[in-house]
Write a structure and sequence with these properties.
It is a single chain. The chain is an alpha/beta fold. It has a single domain, classed as P-loop containing nucleotide triphosphate hydrolases (Rossmann fold, 3-Layer(aba) Sandwich). The protein contains 10 helices and 10 strands. The longest helix is centred in the last third of the chain and has 22 residues, at about 325-345. The protein is globular and about 60 Å long. Mean pLDDT is about 85; it is low at about 1-25. The protein binds adenosine-5'-triphosphate and magnesium ion. Adenosine-5'-triphosphate (ATP) binds near residues 103 and 116. Magnesium ion binds near residues 102, 103, 144 and 228.
Length: about 375
């Protein structure tokens, strides 16, 4: 796949303009096929550092008897040499344990990173560097923390967003229809007239609030959907249904990127592509179905009847209970990350493929 592939329409007609990031949306139902052209998201050789000392105000550090400009930061690598490429029709899951850099990566892609600095690499959306304006127009981002108006009910929240974000060509009936669709899809009917609430104001439950945040972004439904841990706080049945919804959306010519800790096996099977992150480095990036063969080829076969995501996330997790264990886990994950980089060095899309296969999977191939 060449770098310009994302600029062409599925029918081969050239050039993707900013205006085409929006679909013409003739169909008001949630599962319309996105007709705004093919999107491609590329992360190239990204290196991102955070300053863990930056949160401490300079005046509190004066006790160190140093002038503010002499105080050295404490740099920690949050993302290390990460590359990936994903396009419309694919659902990519970033999998890894807590603190491995999932939120940092999604925040960098959506220009919402704070307190860190990109020391190298770039993020491209349809071949153009990501800017806050481009992100705002083209990406729906569900953040890990819910940011909603606590005094509105669930339906009011969605009706409000429908008014603001759906194209002006939508009639009121179509807007209401979309709100109903999203409420039904995310199983919010029973709490549609309950206020959303927050940490201080009692409202819907935590899992329901999470689904309202997702519903807000599903409503306006652009070509690229990014979700940070959409399944956290949900029971496994609801989580599975939610990922099925996302998978259906991806099938409708959308690009879906989500992060998840340790998905259960039936959720894992729904992903087209996965990136396994350990301490900010990719230890695997490729088709979900090729992950077990990949690690088996490195001498880490997945035991029978074991969920591959459980097994491999445990393998690459960093145990920080003691410095010795931490060093041992870091050593293992560094070796795995290096071996992965060696294996994909010659590829054009930074994805591992078993010998003999030639393309990354999309929903259409399933
Ligand atoms: N602005 C920041 N200042 C200090 N440290 C940061 C900052 N952003 C990220 N980090 C650190 O970078 C690492 C990755 O953080 P990130 O939030 O991306 O992890 P995560 O994979 O999303 O974890 P979780 O699954 O718990 O949400 C963590 O060790 C975190 O403490
Ligand atoms: Mg996170």
């Amino acid at each position: 796949m060449d770098a310009d592939a994302g600029l062409n329409h599925a029918d081969g007609s050239p050039q993707h303009r900013d205006t085409e990031l929006f679909s013409s949306e003739d169909d008001s139902s949630l599962y319309f096929t996105y007709s705004g052209g093919r999107n491609e998201l590329q992360v190239n050789d990204l290196h991102y550092e955070v300053d863990t000392a930056a949160q401490i105000p300079w005046y509190e550090r004066l006790s160190e008897f140093k002038l503010p400009w002499d105080i050295k930061g404490n740099k920690q690598t949050a993302i290390n040499k990460l590359s990936l490429r994903v396009c419309s029709g694919q659902m990519l899951a970033i999998i890894g344990s807590s603190g491995c850099g999932k939120t940092s990566l999604l925040d960098i892609i959506t220009c919402r990173d704070e307190g860190g600095a990109m020391t190298s690499g770039q993020v491209l959306i349809n071949g153009k560097p990501n800017t806050p304006q481009l992100v705002k127009k083209s990406i729906a981002h569900v953040r890990q923390d819910d940011r909603l108006l606590p005094h509105l009910t669930v339906r009011e929240t969605l009706a409000f967003v429908a008014k603001l974000r759906l194209p002006t060509s939508f009639t009121q009936a179509q807007r209401d229809q979309r709100v109903d669709d999203v409420i039904a899809e995310l199983r919010l009917r029973q709490c549609a007239h309950t206020r959303v609430g927050n940490d201080y104001i009692r409202g819907v439950s935590g899992g329901e609030r999470r689904r309202v945040s997702i519903a807000v972004q599903l409503l306006w439904n652009p070509g690229i959907l990014i979700l940070d841990e959409p399944t956290s706080g949900l029971d496994s049945f609801t989580a599975h249904n939610l990922v099925i919804t996302l998978s259906r959306l991806a099938r409708g010519n959308r690009l879906v990127l989500l992060s998840v800790h340790q998905p259960r096996s039936d959720i894992f099977q729904l992903f087209d592509l996965v990136v396994l992150l350990s301490s900010g480095s990719a230890v695997y990036c490729g088709a979900a179905r090729d992950m077990v063969p990949y690690f088996t080829s490195l001498g880490h076969p997945c035991p029978r009847y074991c969920n591959p995501s459980d097994f491999y996330v445990d393998l690459i997790s960093i145990d920080r209970r003691s410095p010795e264990r931490e060093a041992e886990c870091l050593q293992r994950s560094t070796v795995l990350a290096q071996r992965f980089l060696e294996k994909v060095r010659a590829t054009d899309n930074h994805m591992w493929r078993p010998a003999g296969s030639n393309a990354a999977p999309t929903h259409t191939e399933r």
